[in-house]
Amino acid sequence: MDPVIPFIILAVLFVAIALSSIRIVPQARAYNIERFGRYTRTLVPGLNFIIPGVDRVNTKFDLREHVFTSRPQPVITEDNLVVNIDTVLYYQVTDPKAAAYEVANYIQAIDQLTVTTLRNVIGSMDLERTLTSREEINTRLRGVLDDTTGKWGIRVNRVEIKAIDPPPTIKEAMEKQMRADRDKRAAILHAEGERQARILRAEGARQQVILEAQGDQQAAILRADGEAQAVERVFQAVHANNADAKLLAYKYLETLPHLANGEGNTFWVIPGELTEAVKNVSHAFAGDTARSGPSTEKGEDAAPAGPAQLTGPDPTERSASAQAAVEAAEAARQAVADARDDVRRAGVAGVRDPEATPRPRKED
Q1: SS3 of 155, please?
Q2: pLDDT in tens, 55-109
Q3: Cα–Cα distance measured from residue 308 to residue 319, given in angstroms and rounded to the nearest whole number
Q4: I need a surface site. Which of 131, 145, 152, 356 has the fewest CB within 10 A?
C-alpha cells in the first residue's frame, strides 16, 4: 500500500470539513443556527462559520417586504348583507428567531387573523359605510395586525382592500340609485342654469330700460335747454332792438301761412286779428301820408307817430313810402288768399273769413 494515500484521504477530509463549516449568507437573508437541536444564533449576510456536525441551519428567512393576497372572504355587514372582500397585505420579517419559534406558520396565521379582524370591523358598519370607508378599514386592520404579529417577528406595513363585491341584487339597486341621483343633480343644475339665465336676462332688460330712460331724460333736458336759450335770445333781441307793434304784426303775418303746413292739419281757422295785422303793416309803410287826415269812420283811433313815420318836405320819399306800403299790403292779402285757397282745396269746411264779419269798432 502506498503511504501517500492516507495523506490524500486526510487532506480530502480536511477540505470537506472546512467547506462544510463555511456558510455564505446573501444580502437581506437570515439563517437560524441550531446546535444539537437548540437555537444558538442567527447568521447575518456575509461569510459565516459553523461547526460541522454540531451546528446546522434550521430555517432561512427573506428579510425583504412581501405581498400576500388573500382569497375573497364573505363578510356580513351590520345591515345583514353579505359582501365578498379581497385584501392585500404588505409584511416583512423583522425577527427571524420569533418567526421560526413563536408561530408554526406565520403566513397562515396572518391570513386567518386578517379574516377574523375584517369580519369584526365590517360587522360594525352598514353597506354604504363599508363602501365609502376603505381608508378607515385599512387603518383598523393594520393596527390590529401590527399589534398581534409583532410578537411573531412580523411587521405589517400596509393593508389594502382590493375589492368589495356586494350581491348582484344590491349592485343593481345601487346602480339605479346612482342613476337617479345623477338625474336629480342634472335636473337641479339645469334648473339653476335656467334661473340664472332668467335673472341675467331680467337684469339686462332692467339696465336697458334704465339707460334708455336716462338717455331720453338727458335728451329732453338738452332740448328744453336749447328751446329756453332760443326763446331767451329771441326775447333779448326783440327788447334790445325796441321792436314796436308794427314789426310784430309783420312777423305775425309772415308766420301765419306755416300753420297749415302740417300733414295732420285738416281744419284751419283764420284768426280775426288778421285784418288788424294787415292794417298795422300798411300804416307802418304808409307813414304820415296814410295817417295824416282824420279818420272818416266812427270809432277809428288816430295812429300815433312812430319811428317808421316819414317826415320832411321831400315828396319823392313820400311817394316811395306809399308805394312800398301798398305793395306790402297787397302781399299780405295775397298770402291770406293763398292760405284760404289751400284750405278750400283740401276740402275742409269751417274757415272763417275775417273780412266777412267785421269786428266792432270802438266808440270815440
Answers
A1: strand
A2: 888 889 999 999 988 888 888 888 888 888 888 989 999 999 999 998 888 888 8
A3: 15
A4: 356
DSSP letter, residue 306: -
Q: What confidence tens digit (pLDDT) does each residue in 124-135 have?
A: 888 888 888 888
β-sheet bridge partners, residue 23: 48
Q: Which residues of 132-151 are buried (b: 16+ CB within 10 A; e: fewer)?
A: ebeeebbebbbebbeeebee
User: How far apart, in whole angstroms, are the C-alpha atoms of residue 95 and residue 265?
Assistant: 118
Instruction: Copy the grid coordinates of residue 151.
Output: 410578537
Looking at residue 340, what is its pLDDT?
Answer: 62
Which residue spans within the chain are E strands per DSSP? 22-25, 29-35, 38-43, 46-49, 55-62, 66-69, 73-76, 82-93, 154-165
Report how far residue 122's alpha carbon sits from residue 95's, in angstroms, rounded to the nearest whole number. 31
Pairing of strands 73-76, 82-93: antiparallel
pTM comes to: 0.46
